[in-house]
Amino acid sequence: MNGNKEKLVIIGNGMAGISTVEQILKLSSRFDITVFGTEPYPNYNRIMLSYVLEGSKTIDDIVLNDLHWYEDYGITLHTGTTITRIESETREVVTAEGLRFPYDKVIIATGSSSFILPVPGHDKQGVVGFRDIADCNVMLEAAKQYKKAAVIGGGLLGLEAAKGLVQLGMEVTVVHLMQDLMERQLDPQASAMLKTELERQGIRFKMGAQTAELLGGERVEGIRFADDSVLNTDFVVMAVGIKPNTGVARESGLEVNRGIVVDDYMQTSLNNVYSVGECTEHRGVCYGLVAPLFEQGMILAKHICGVDTAPYEGSVVSTKLKISGVDVFSTGEFIDSPEHTIISHKDDWKRTYKKILLRDNIMVGAVLFGDITDSAELQKLIKQQAEMTDELYASLMGTGCGGHKKATSVETMAEDEIVCGCNGVTKGTIVDAITNEGLTSVDEIKACTGATRSCGGCKPVVEQILQYVLGDNFTAGAKQGICGCTSLNRDEIVAEIRQKGLQTTKEVMHVLGWNQPEGCSKCRPAINYYLGMIAPDTHVDEKESRFVNERMNANIQKDGTYTVVPRMYGGVTTPEDLKRIADISVKYDVKAVKVTGGQRLDLIGVKKEDLPKVWAELDMPSGYAYAKSLRTVKTCVGSQFCRFGTQDSMAMGALLERKFERLDLPAKFKYAVNGCPRNCAESCTKDIGIVGNDGGWEIFIGGNGGIKARLADSLCKVKTDEELVELCGAIMQHYRETANYLERTSEWVERMGLEQIRAVVVEDVKERKALMERIEFALEQVEDPWKKALRNEEGQNKLFHGIEVSARP
């Protein structure tokens, strides 16, 4: 340790403590900092645990400050180490093992833990909270062995846990004591809309249910409720609330109520000992949201560094969250009462809801569901106790009936208003970074400040701040390259490839002046795709520029085995193919055969060296479940079997799948074909959704059922099957030629605009036929990748036997 510096000890390696450290590092270099964390990980984003649970992110993806960060700033980090007490007489902290470390100042940031209901059976095996990575790992393991899960608690954590377990294949029931979900953040209307949306995603609910006992032997087998009804379950997640972790404070003699009591500068009752975050109680309040802990950390950092600062006077609580892909927001008062004047708008088609509450014409609260564009503006107005006017009403409610959505007003945002809730980044921090560091892109802002590096929900506001600060220089200055290796964007790269006749990724990077000669995992796959899209007849696909799943023609699992998905056109197969799949699954010890959401069979757990043999013996086409291409065409039974069916959806689904399979696309692509408007194949959430009616077909585009859920937009109606196929081909080729690499159609439609797409592929018949000709030409060049791999014995030996495969290009 540096003897010239004050010794600052941080007890807790979570978001509150390390956010405070980040602020301290910006203000002063006077401290020699040591951090103690109970978990065996560097600082990670607890908000993103649900993404790890559902499988869309890894633990590495949610790390906020990796080990190199601690080293770069000279911070000593002790992971897996618990501080049990602070001894003020000797000015030392003491670990659970009895080791002692000196301090001059201490910040307690121990956070909170899950509250476990003290009902009989709460200590049985199979009962867990949801608060950290260890809980997440227990849930991941449980999903491999058990089928039924119950989540007790209908708040944010409970709903996120439920969605993650559903994604892992479990049958999940959320048990909630109240009649409304998230009743502390949402009004009954928004709660009901959220419940409907989550039910659509596969979650079941038991509302108004009081848990009396957990049943079973050593392991939980069910829940008995106060009314003596029983829910059978194999696994229980407790998400009924949190309790501040105050153990070290109590052992050290600090004043503790529900949390560790602090003054307006986060000082505890012990001199030179501070507390911040969820373990802290300020003016009788313990906060469980991230924005207050960042506000506390900023004031504590200034105070501890000797910088003048206003005292912490508490936080105006607002909630802006994404629950299972659905955006919700509330601030101030949100439950109606007779003294309120209510302004509201509900759109069942777009699944949006907006409510503003007034008292004596003063704005006192708001709730948003589905579209939270106005969240920052409403939060500011309610904090200012703004009076409602005709102009303000028109501004806030004018978009509710189909008008064009306006941008958030960043000019009037306060400098200390938090823009990135995941990382505690304020508007002022972003403005200073742009001004002082000369930043000109969102990626640069992300690297410098951390804003947008987690969930990405704040990216639109960050872009608006960038535009506001750069002014007239925004257009030129804000232009971003496709990655950090180049300043060229997608359109410029494609134009240069066409103009200069470039043929390989290395040639592109060399001729166009990449600053990284080998490129990176972001640009190499993109260039490889653009080259193939431009010249499908001459381009030689570069396997080394693809991710592992595309190189191996199968999906890698976390244990190193692979999932094989054979093609089943339109979700239809034969008894002979089913028997072959079963026989091969037994022969090669396949761990599980799963029916997918796209009506296919996953053969999960195939060893790498067995992949070629499984492909050969299946003798079926690849289902392309691993590729940026057409994955599936989901169908209902249609007019062949359904008494409501008006069109032959199975035949059309199989035709479209056979027609457009194997073609590289900017991102994965899914179809659904319904034989009637009852929508059993869920066309509303597919890239192209097709709905049959008595007069023909209706085409929808841009749907997405993933993390960023989006309903598809109606593009047009056609009368004949031939028109339908031609329009589908034109849509796909227009998407291929204009989308950014990895840009889903849901984002593409919003960026391009539905009217522009309709003008090109529907109204301009000549251009539609030209697009169809180009996609037909590209389709002539493709072949089944499994058969191609089986012909290449040398490639098989290199790829499938004994060589570890990197996940990145």
Automatic annotation (TrEMBL):
Positions of the Nitrite/sulphite reductase 4Fe-4S domain: 627-768
PROSITE patterns xref list: NIR_SIR
Protein's organism: Paenibacillus taichungensis
Superkingdom: Bacteria
Residue intervals of the FAD/NAD(P)-binding domain: 7-280
Keywords: 2Fe-2S, 4Fe-4S, FAD, Flavoprotein, Heme, Iron, Iron-sulfur, Metal-binding, Nitrate assimilation, Oxidoreductase
Domain Nitrite/Sulfite reductase ferredoxin-like: 557-619
NCBIfam families: nitri_red_nirB
Lineage: Bacteria, Bacillati, Bacillota, Bacilli, Bacillales
Alphabetical list of PANTHER family matching this protein: NITRITE REDUCTASE (NADH) LARGE SUBUNIT (PTHR43809)
InterPro entries in the record: BFD-like_2Fe2S-bd_dom, BFD-like_2Fe2S-bd_dom_sf, FAD/NAD-bd_sf, FAD/NAD-binding_dom, FAD/NAD-linked_Rdtase_dimer_sf, NasD-like, NiRdtase/SiRdtase_haem-b_fer, Nit/Sulf_reduc_fer-like_dom_sf
Membership in a protein family: Belongs to the nitrite and sulfite reductase 4Fe-4S domain family.
UniProt domain BFD-like [2Fe-2S]-binding: residue ranges: 418-467, 482-531
Cofactor: [2Fe-2S] cluster; [4Fe-4S] cluster; siroheme; FAD
Matching Gene3D superfamilies: 3.30.390.30, BFD-like [2Fe-2S]-binding domain (1.10.10.1100), FAD/NAD(P)-binding domain (3.50.50.60), Sulfite Reductase Hemoprotein, domain 1 (3.30.413.10), Sulfite Reductase Hemoprotein,Domain 2 (3.90.480.10)
Domain NADH-rubredoxin oxidoreductase C-terminal: start-end pairs: 318-385
Protein name: NAD(P)/FAD-dependent oxidoreductase
